[in-house]
Amino acid sequence: MPEISSDNDTGPELLNRQRAVRFSAARLRQFLKRLAGEVAGGRPFAVCVVSDAVMRGYNRRFCGIDAATDVLSFADGAAGRAGDLLISAETARRQAHRLGHGVEAELETLALHGLLHLLGYDHEAPGKAARMSRAERCWRRHFGLPPGLMERALGARPSRPPRVRAAGPRSR
């Protein structure tokens, strides 16, 4: 598991450990602050943006899959921490290009998806995918993000917003 700390008052720590993909770290940092306050309930987490090669190594080591992936979540729980996220910038760039939006929007979408995993959501366990899909869709809309990973996987783009429950943004 990557060693990343986020013991600061400025929000989640963002580390950029790759050079192939340019993106606005300031924009992503602002988005991560919103995620921390609105989704994570103030639980600290960190995000490390890496290359496909690094991601492939972590995916092989922790998931037994010898290929890069877009996002990996490492739940922590120590001292109230949510955990750490690894995001592949190169995979994010390819997905953004294929889907017709910017790399920053894709990084934000991946951060949201990974954070939901840190908070206990799961799309691979039987009977839990629908719950995660609803939460991701609700938060994605709240933040104005493009279709999330769950919607892409299901090929669904619902026409009306879901009811917001405890897992979604609070109504005002």
Structural class: alpha/beta
Question: In sequence order, what are the helices and strands, one letter per element?
Answer: EHEHEEHHHH
Q: Which of globular, elongated, flat, extended, rod-shaped describes the shape?
A: globular
Biggest sheet overview: 4 strands, mixed
Share of residues in strands: 5-15%
Provide a descriptive summary of the structure in words:
The chain is of the alpha/beta class. It has a single domain (13-154), classed as Metalloproteases ("zincins"), catalytic domain (Collagenase (Catalytic Domain)). Helix content is 43%, strand content 12%. It has helices at residues 25-38, 52-63, 89-99, 103-118, 129-143, 149-154; strands spanning 13-16, 45-50, 71-75, 83-88. A four-stranded mixed β-sheet has the order 1-2-4-3. β1 (13-16), α1 and β2 form a beta-alpha-beta unit. α1 runs parallel beside α4 (103-118) and α4 (103-118) packs across α5. The longest helix has 16 residues, at 103-118. It is globular and about 35 Å long. The N and C termini lie far apart (38 Å).
Task: Sum this structure up briefly.
With 172 residues, this protein is of the alpha/beta class. The protein is 43% helix and 12% strand.
Helices and strands in order, then pairings?
Elements: E1 13-16, H1 25-38, E2 45-50, H2 52-63, E3 71-75, E4 83-88, H3 89-99, H4 103-118, H5 129-143, H6 149-154
Parallel strand pairs: 1-2, 2-4
Antiparallel strand pairs: 3-4
